[in-house]
Amino acid sequence: MGGVGLLVVVLIGLGWMAFNRRSLPAEHRRSFTSSVDRLTSVVFDAERKLLIAGSAEGRVVFWNWPDAAPNVLDRWSAEPLTAIAVTRDGLLIAGCLSNDVFGWGLADNQLRKLPELNSPVSCIGVRSKAIELGLGLKNGLIAVVAPEKKMRLIQSGHRGGISSLCYDPTGKYLVTGGGDGRLIWRDAQTKKIARVSHVHQTDVSSLCFSADGKQLVSGDWNGMIVAWDVADGKERHRRQQPDAVSGLVMLSDGFVTASWDNRLRIWAWDTDGIVREINTGRPIYAMAEGDNPSLVLTVSNTSELDEWQLK
Description:
CATH superfamily: YVTN repeat-like/Quinoprotein amine dehydrogenase
Strand order of the largest sheet: 1-28-27-26
Number of strands: 28
Oligomer: single chain
Mean pLDDT: 90
Largest sheet: 4 strands, antiparallel
CATH topology: Methylamine Dehydrogenase, Chain H
Radius of gyration: 20 Å
Number of domains: 1
CATH architecture: 7 Propeller
Low-confidence stretches: 6-20
Number of helices: 1
């Protein structure tokens, strides 16, 4: 290849790299890179000392927050991890498409395999007032896991699978969102159904309670967002974004939604419109609250995890 030909190849390569490089907005604080590709879930431990991401490659990556190099755990499954969560006593739980559920002790670095389920885990919730996990399954069952107790399977009441699950921070309710668009509220202690809400017309993709447990926000794959008063279960207001709600994080005066259209959107309780919109440059697969209320972290099915400044 002559000198001119080589120069052309180099220039084309540089142009391609520039074309594929994201133009990051001012709200982007930093990126965390790992050797594991296709990160699709993210969560902090209870003390905000470990940042943990799960991947579609069946691996888990964690960072000793805020700036240590990533640590990659041995592959737990050949199947994608579908959900991760951390209990307040330091047990990392991960479900995968092969129906397996794995636990990893963050203090002793020991792998624990939980009883195999008869359906993949789609979502995991952690009860803050007790060491208890709720696992939402694709076949519509809820698996309740607590120390020294046998795993309990409960019929959720959804017509189809469970797509989201969370406990309220006061420990009163366990709420599931289903592929049938319904929210089913349960007494967190007895697991009896307290109420059923039906507003969404498709899978409820995300659920998030406010820190005081007084508000709940739900989002679905069509971009509908609904805020609820927990005390009476009534709809407070309804919002709409152009694409699926792939994550929810509460703020003191509103909430943040993530979406497959690359956007983070900040909403206020007392206004109808979007307060602020951030184009992240990538479809957002999952989002977690940062170590202070003005930060969120996102993953986008790549090897990077991004941190964003909201205020």
